[in-house]
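Lab notebook: predicted structure, single chain.

Context: the supervisor wants predicted structures on file for every construct in the current expression panel, including those that have not yet been purified. This is the next one on the list. No modifications to the sequence; it matches the entry in the shared construct table.
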Amino acid sequence: MEGLSPVESIVSLQFLKCFRLGGDPISERLPASETWFTQPRWQDPLLQTEKADLNRTKSQLDSKPLQSWSTHTRRHNPAKDIAFHVKKEADPELATQAWCKMTECLHRFGLLDSFPLDEGLVTVHLCEAPGAFVSATNHFLATRPAKFSSWHWRATSLNPFHEGNSTDRMVNDDTLILHSLDRWMFGEDATGDLLGGLHLGTLCKSLTPAGLAHLVTADGGVDCQREPWRQEEMLSQLLRAETSVALSALRPGGNLVLKMFTLFEDDTVCLLLLLKFAFDTLDLYKPASSKEGNSEVYAICKSYRGNLSETELQALALKTSELPLFGCGEVPPTFLEEVRKAAGFFSHIQRAVITRNLLTFEEPIEAYYGDLSHLQDRVAEEYLRRFRVVPLHAGDRLLGPDSVFTPLHNFFSTRRDSPTGTLGERKMAGCRAADIEKDLLHYANPHRYWIAALGTLQWCEFRGGPSAFFEPEYGREADVIRNTKFCPIKVVHILQQAHSLWESYPTWRRKNDFATDPGPLPLSDLPYCQLAQRVWRLLPEARDSTWAVAVADHQTSNYLREAAHTPSFRGTLRRILAATRVLKVGENLMVTCLPLLHRRSVSLLLVLASHFGRFAFVEPHDGRDAVLFVRMLSTADTLAKVLAQMESLLEGKGDCGLVANAYMPIAKLVADPTYKMLCAHNISVLKSRGLQMLRSLPPHFSSPSV
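Prediction complete. Output recorded below exactly as produced.
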């Protein structure tokens, strides 16, 4: 750039990745809503040529090991140190790349500057977990001189507490969510999934109790690492759902920030046309703090006209047709030309970055940038200067000075598996029994998660009186445990692999016919039961005590399905109820093979613990485990009433097909003093079950893409 040094030119260019879609907004009209999703698929040849050029450049990455390539591109990104300097300078809450991007958009486009201060501010944040956009908005509002009279915010995202939500689809960090649960709306089915059949009208009402929003943000994405060439296609339905909710929640004059990616396909062109019609201005912007080599751009839509009907917005969200929103002939040629220019603009930037990174993968970056560390410092300094990032006062923080929480569950549940190898290797990857066993032995170790391993018999005490007050959360039933707050998610993923591998092995060739359900124990002669004998050895005084034994109900052959299975949980409740009816005050209970990965099962554990003097986890052996409850404090009738109440609450509300997924708030479950011991117990149980399955298979047996 003229008049600037080479370094300063590169610094300036980091902040100029913006394209305004032009054209006369008044002359552009949408087709009649009854014609939406009725036209055949279409492609624009020029956009497809641009797409082919970009994919040719991207295809050169197929042979690069992903981990090495990611490290290389991250290390040599001129904007790499922005988040580091922001944290050092201002120590914001959730000082992530997403925080930096939102801060950049707020300042660059004046997204909150045009609203009267005395009216108060309402913001809505979609696909928001873990809350970086909320945190950035709070920081922006608290550190600017002009203050709104009030700020009401609501957010939605995939529910990080719902056991059926896969961690592959979400950022599973819930630190902010736990401290502001009343502001997070997960919809009637409690999943937070915009694509899962939520009633979006009801969701919109829950998001705007203080009135329609001045600002809506939508930061959704999809995991496309196995099929990167399909990123735009895979995202199209989510973008439509986000847009429908956003426009339903926005007031006239409000603004929208919507994350998008490439701009080549008919779905994207149609959505941009809709946004151009609905807002006064539409800018496509790649923040300096965005990863420079990816396709991410943000649609910055300002001043909503309120010119779309509720019927049109519902159709936009719920239509799952394979047809595009508008036909090719319904897109104005002048607008299509603008999209071509925008697609070419961002594609050129991305190709240039990928080409540079390919060239520098084998040789020093200084040949292209000179002193890289100086450049990275200058980009970060320019970010701080442009966007006036300063520290928050303690009283302005979202979590507040008194809400310090040590999210042990976050430490081991937020880490996603980092893919390794080249694209071809990842597509062809299979898992041998021996490899899965090696991973299981490595990761199923409590010390990796800063918690102590349990002894053979680990005693716990419940601190609190008998629990009979429930706050049930109803939602969609999970078909399998994909996510839990009570075990490292990596261990759950490894057990999923073990299950898949075991189920793919021919039954007639198995060394034994071990199915993951070990079946009921032979309790007719309790002292000679193998598990009971272990307990008597560990606890000699138990031999002379009165015990009732309940075996958890098992109706499926997969432990992770079993843990989520509502009929099995109902059966377990009834078995425990039957077992405890014979107990007197001071007597004991043993519950065997009880899955403790689901919120409602952990609620049951704490309910039982509150009615006994103490309880203990028994170390699993050969796939069998137990929990001992010693010295019952209440009468059998009292406990029976509580268990019967739990069963009655389990039934779904009305005909919605919903079930009780929890009886107690998640904050109570993870804050209980026994939480660490429960996690260690689950690690041991999953390890024992996984090893028993894997060791029944030949070590080199594998199944592709387990």
